[in-house]
Automatic annotation (TrEMBL):
This is SRR1-like domain-containing protein. Residues 1-22, 279-388 are annotated as: Disordered. Residues 107-270 form the SRR1-like domain. It comes from Hymenoscyphus fraxineus. Residues 1-10 have a biased composition (Basic residues). Residues 299-337, 365-388 have a biased composition (Basic and acidic residues). It comes from the Eukaryota. Transmembrane segments: none annotated.
Length: 388
């Protein structure tokens, strides 16, 4: 029975020509003497490089003049770069974003002019980028950096180090003309320390990971680290996300004013210095320990009251002290007389504060009592009883 349902063609067997298949085979003799017939291995196909004509078509399609690696560039002269740079600086200076950045940094840099001692710029992009938007963004980010550094204005110019594998020789020459230093990868990372401003807009996560391995920079202007967390799901990439999040834990997060796509999702990470809380605590303690001026004002009134009260209290306190030794030396009868006289003088003294006549009367009574006491004392001395 046939093994297929396909219908046979209506040609006769006599008219049908035999089918000859040409194959490349090879006989191989094994160790036991058997001969094996195998197919010859086919030669690998050679990949022909694209011709100059194909490259020209590719460059024409994206309006590029030449290609380095996987990047496309346009031809420019130094004069043409200067024209684009001047145009970008004027446009940025008139933008609302520039005004807001200036106000923001004036508040943050007050009293912290020495916070930044060098700048490391990563991934700025080539000024000869074939993509018009990419080239414009690079110029805008460059002139924005200059306005940012003006807020850290100091007598000495802050050194700026730039690194990007996409830089061309013309990029390097032009940036050096602006008194910047262009470094090969990865030398710029070595210049990051606690007094560095890291300026890395829209870089890849591995660039920020390398930054995280250095000392915490003073300020970082870069892509929001939370953007990487939302876009990465693989295990290895999630570990990178954790590293980036830990890197910015000690920083204050300030949104950078948006302008088109040049600074989209960009954050100013401002490091919180530990010295600032300590200064605030000392100022508070000094304010609490300053009630000294109030004590200086009190002596004008308080001591006067104390003097008056002490003067009024002195006669009452001193009289018993003067009388106590006398009472101990005089006989019991004389003690009764002296105590009676003291009782008489007490109300007189109270009245003496009211009229001058009562004052004279009290003094006379006191003199009589004093004379009586002296007489008794002299009698005792003559008898040889008590000596004063």
């Amino acid at each position: 029975m046939p093994h297929t349902n396909r219908k046979k063609k209506g040609t006769s067997a006599a008219t049908k020509k035999p089918l000859i298949t040409h194959t490349k085979r090879k006989e191989v003799l094994d160790e036991e003497g058997w001969v094996h017939v195998i197919d010859k291995p086919s030669k690998p196909r050679s990949i022909t490089p694209p011709s100059e004509k194909d490259e020209a078509k590719e460059l024409w399609a994206i309006a590029a003049d030449f290609k380095i690696g996987n990047a496309y560039y346009v031809n420019r002269t130094e004069e043409e770069l200067e024209i684009e740079y001047t145009r970008a600086r004027k446009s940025w200076g008139q933008s609302e974003a520039c005004r807001r950045v200036k106000i923001l940094l004036e508040e943050k840099t007050e009293g912290e002019k020495e916070k930044i001692k060098n700048v490391v710029v990563l991934g700025l992009g080539s000024l000869q980028n074939a993509r018009g938007e990419g080239r414009k963004a690079s110029f805008t980010q460059l002139v924005a950096l200059e306005s940012i550094l003006e807020n850290f204005g100091r007598e000495t110019k802050i050194p700026v180090y730039l690194q990007d594998p996409a830089f061309t020789s013309l990029d390097t020459e032009y940036l050096q003309k602006l008194e910047y230093t262009v470094l090969p990868d990865p030398e710029a990372f070595e210049h990051i320390d606690g007094n560095t401003l890291v300026y890395a807009i829209h870089c890849y996560a591995d660039i920020y990971e390398k930054v995280s391995k250095r000392e915490n920079a003073a300020v970082m202007i870069c892509t929001d680290m939370e953007m990487f967390e939302s876009s990465r799901i693989e295990k290895e990439e999630s570990e990178v996300n954790k590293t980036l999040q830990v890197m910015v834990d000690d920083y204050e997060k300030i949104p950078f004013p948006q302008i088109r796509s040049d600074f989209s999702d960009t954050i100013i990470y401002w490091r919180r210095d530990e010295e600032i809380p300590a200064i605030e605590e000392t100022t508070v303690t000094e304010e609490k320990s300053e009630p000294l001026p109030t004590e200086g004002d009190v002596p004008e009134t308080k001591p006067v009251e104390e003097l008056v009260s002490t003067e009024e209290a002195k006669p009452e306190e001193q009289k018993p002290e003067e009388q106590k030794p006398e009472e101990q030396k005089i006989e019991e009868q004389k003690i009764e007389e002296s105590t009676a006289a003291a009782k008489v003088t007490k109300p007189v003294e109270e009245v003496s504060t009211e009229t001058p006549e009562a004052q004279l009367l009290a003094e006379a009574k006191a003199a009589e009592v004093k004379d009586a006491v002296e007489e008794k004392m002299s009698e005792l001395e003559s008898r040889g009883g008590v000596k004063i």
